[in-house]
Specification:
Distance between the termini: 94 Å
Low-confidence stretches: 477-504, 507-511, 527-537, 579-583, 615-630, 636-643, 708-715
Shape: elongated
Strand order of the largest sheet: 10-11-9-12-13-8-15-14
Largest sheet: 8 strands, parallel
Mean pLDDT: 74
Structural class: alpha/beta
Number of helices: 27
């Protein structure tokens, strides 16, 4: 409403459509016929654009404003006509709109209000070049609004280049995990995750009363898990990025109305979905970024409600778990024998639980061939996912390699008295290490070697104990006091450096002196907390904290993330190679490469066919940039201006018909006689015939011209007089 450029982060269903339509209607107020288009709204899909048009018509019903819909896949001739009607509001998809701009050579200087709806999806679908070219053609004095569920880095770069002094507004974005959220972490093998998930859905989650969202890596995992849950008689719905929009809407509606209690999603598909009454979140694949974890679990335990987050962690995902706890400033609570089911406990899964569900899955794979084939596809997709997944921090990888997970107890959620005693006995048998060596057993017990080993053990016991204590200190994850919630990337890097500092030797600690009463530190003890809770003044700092990139959920989108680079001799650096990026493209005045198909003769052909002249006046005050179609009613056709070129007649006259027939006859005669030698007599006869036909033709012309035989006789008499 204040006319500022805005970048707003809001989930789907939070009312963002009305948030940009109401200020737009307030600014445009009423229709001005000769002003051209004044508002431009970009949508990533046809369905969203049509929905926006519907809301626009409902809100602007009494304003007289006219809106036009420009979508890919529709007839471009109808869109030419819509632009000629000079609408006030244009709702379009970027590709087709840029096609019209280039084809019709439109000027966009009258645009004063621009909206990028679902901006993250616009860039995800590859519209960056089209949006950049349109932005370069727009006037500088305009108001730009970008609405997005997330804030990828490519969107931040686009805003920095094309939007002046943007204001970042974050709606319903959780910067911290809710206090009412209870997290649980289960250590298991990658192949056992499906069995653990089935156990949780059957025995831990209440499917009739609670809503649960399961996050998976790729769309192939979603399809495989859907088939598994159907075999287990567990109703569920699913969504992924390439799913049809109608099926996507139906599946989300089933979940919201509690017809099904489980929703299988990928990160890129679940972005922007707002489900207010969510109870549980299950991370089948642990998120590779702490912000992504907060983004997932931030959907539950809102508005005073309680919720739970379950995470299945494979051995290769443990460094990401450590990164998460360093980001949150918490320590990892590994399960202990007498520990209760508390928040943040990390434990293992009993083998008996895994075996029961694994046997059931194995029988299904043997019985159903389609399920077995989907398992193979999901495994291949997981290998592609691992290639595109960013690596954890090197420090977390180093520390987790040294940690011994064999000492971690079973998670308290699986506690059973009989099962607990059984596992304790098995653990003791597994971890049993005798104190005696080979030199102290059997007949060697009374030899001198036995006495030497006893003396050695007695002398080295102190060093063995000290080494065990040091290894235990290295394995334990220390709790950090600084909560880096909204800090920028530099702060996060410095925080990781603080973690990697080696332990100060004891002799240096004794020599160090600090007077607690008079010593002044160079920063406050609450420095990171104050900075995290403070409001940053610049857009760059806010955007750096809000940036969150997602990996694709299928092979095509994963390959887009791979930056294939080649050496550029002119720039003297590696640049990205997009496989014939400039092939079949043309360079615009602003330097952006667009497809050559955008510039064709479709518009000129449409103009010639409909006899419509597209006017663009030099005076922008009198005539809009989109021109004006000269639409003249039928009863005023007499005042229509005559064009220099008369319209082409569709009906032929008698002269034109006779001329065409005679031409056809001459052509046929020529084809018959061109390979034959003709005598002079025949040539003379042919000449006489031709002259006779020409004479008849002249007579017909004179008859049609004067209309009767009387005029013909008068004409012949006057001709004879002239000859005399």
């Amino acid at each position: 409403m204040e006319g500022k450029n805005v970048v707003a982060m809001a989930r789907t269903g939070s009312g963002k459509t009305a948030a940009f339509l109401i200020p737009m209607l307030e600014r445009l107020k009423t229709r001005i016929p000769k002003s051209g288009a004044r508002a431009l709204i970009f949508s990533p899909t046809r369905e969203l654009a049509m929905q926006t048009l519907k809301f626009t018509k409902e809100l602007a019903i009494n304003t007289g404003l006219k809106a036009a819909l420009i979508l890919g896949g529709d007839k471009i001739e109808d869109q030419f006509a819509a632009i000629h009607e000079s609408p006030d509001i244009i709702i379009a998809t970027p590709g087709r709109f840029l096609h019209l701009v280039v084809e019709m050579d439109l000027k966009l200087s009258s645009i004063e209000y621009v909206v990028f709806d679902e901006a993250d999806r616009l860039f995800e679908m590859g519209f960056q070049d089209q949006l950049q070219e349109v932005l370069n053609r727009l006037p500088t004095e305009r108001q730009t609004l970008l609405f997005s569920a997330t804030l990828p880095k490519i969107l931040v770069d686009f805003v920095k280049l094309g939007v002046e002094e943007p204001v970042l507004i974050r709606l319903d974005v959780d910067l911290q995990i809710s206090e009412n959220l209870k997290t649980s972490y289960f250590l298991c093998r990658t192949d056992d995750k499906t069995a653990v998930l089935l156990y949780l859905l059957k025995n831990v989650v209440d499917l009739e009363k609670e809503l649960t969202v399961v996050f998976l890596a790729t769309k192939h995992h979603v399809e495989y898990m859907k088939d598994v849950l159907e075999k287990a008689n567990i109703p569920c719905s699913y969504i992924y990025s390439s799913l049809d929009q109608m099926a996507r809407t139906i599946n989300i509606a089933k979940f919201r109305t509690k017809k099904v209690g489980i929703l299988l999603v990928t990160d890129i598909a679940a972005r922007g979905i707002d489900i207010p009454l969510l109870d549980n979140v299950i991370n089948f694949n642990f998120p590779f970024k702490p912000k992504l974890f907060v983004h997932r679990v931030g959907r539950v335990a809102r508005a005073g409600r309680s919720g739970r987050a379950f995470s299945l962690i494979a051995p290769d995902e443990t460094p990401y778990l450590l990164d998460l706890h360093l980001f949150l400033g918490k320590s990892i609570k590994f399960a202990k024998p007498d520990m209760q089911d508390e928040d943040g406990v990390c434990g293992t899964v009993p083998q008996t639980v895994i075996d029961d569900e694994a046997d059931l899955l194995h029988s299904w794979h043997e019985r159903y061939f389609d399920l077995k084939s989907m398992l193979k596809v999901s495994r291949n997709a997981y290998q592609q996912y691992l290639k595109s997944r960013p690596a954890a921090s090197s420090e977390s990888i180093r520390r987790m390699k040294k940690f011994s997970f064999s000492t971690v107890e079973i998670h308290p959620i699986f506690n059973d008295d009989a099962e607990l005693e059984k596992n304790k006995m098995l653990a003791k048998m597994k971890n049993y290490r005798p104190n005696t060596t080979i030199f102290e057993l059997g007949p060697l017990a009374k030899t001198q070697a036995n006495a030497v080993m006893r003396e050695k053990r007695k002398m080295h016991s102190r060093f063995v104990k000290q080494a065990a204590e040091e290894s235990q200190e290295n394995e334990s994850v220390e709790e950090t006091k600084n909560t880096l919630v909204s800090a920028d990337e530099d702060d996060l890097k410095s925080f990781n450096q603080n973690v990697t500092v080696k332990k100060v030797p004891a002799y240096l600690k004794k020599s160090a002196f600090r007077d607690d009463e008079h010593y002044l530190t160079y920063m406050s003890s609450e420095h990171y907390k104050e900075k995290g809770l403070g409001l940053e003044s610049t857009f760059e700092r806010q955007a750096a904290d809000a940036v969150l990139d997602f990996t694709g959920d299928e092979n095509k989108s994963m390959k887009k993330l791979k930056s294939i680079k080649k050496w550029d001799r002119k720039k003297k650096k590696f640049v990205q190679d997009n496989d014939n990026e400039k092939a079949k493209k043309m360079k615009t005045e602003s330097g952006v490469w667009i497809p050559k198909t955008y510039k064709s003769d479709l518009y000129k052909k449409w103009q010639e066919k409909n006899k419509i002249r597209y006017q663009q006046n030099d005076n922008d005050e009198n005539e809009g940039d989109f021109g004006k179609q000269r639409r003249i009613p039928r009863h005023f056709k007499g005042s229509q201006e005559k064009s220099n070129r008369p319209p082409r007649r569709e009906l032929k006259t008698t002269e034109e018909i006779y001329k065409a027939r005679s031409k056809k006859e001459r052509l046929m005669d020529h084809q018959k006689n061109r390979n034959k030698r003709k005598p002079k007599e025949e040539m003379g006869n042919k000449k006489e015939k031709f002259m006779g036909r020409q004479k008849k033709k002249n007579q017909l012309k004179s008859n049609r011209q004067f209309g009767s035989r009387n005029f013909k006789s008068k004409q012949s008499s006057t001709g004879n007089r002239r000859r005399r």
